[in-house]
Amino acid sequence: MKKTNNKSDKQLLITLLLSIFVGAFGIHRFYVGKIGSGIAMLLLTLSFIGLLVTGIWALIDIITIATGNFKDKEGKLVL
Known about the structure:
Blueprint: H1 12-22, H2 27-31, H3 35-44, H4 48-66
Helix pairs in contact: 1-4, 3-4
């Protein structure tokens, strides 16, 4: 039986720092390969209401990353 690796090749610290400093723009999502949601966050920042939404979204991502539950585009945990 083969053991599957559920760990992403992306680094947790880089993902966390990107989400803290430029998270509202979705840059951390581009880093882990989630291009679609990264583009959505980037486009939402063009309006004031959208910026508030992406700020909350980024905060949720920060918590998810810090607790070790954030996944990359392949569904592997960023650890």
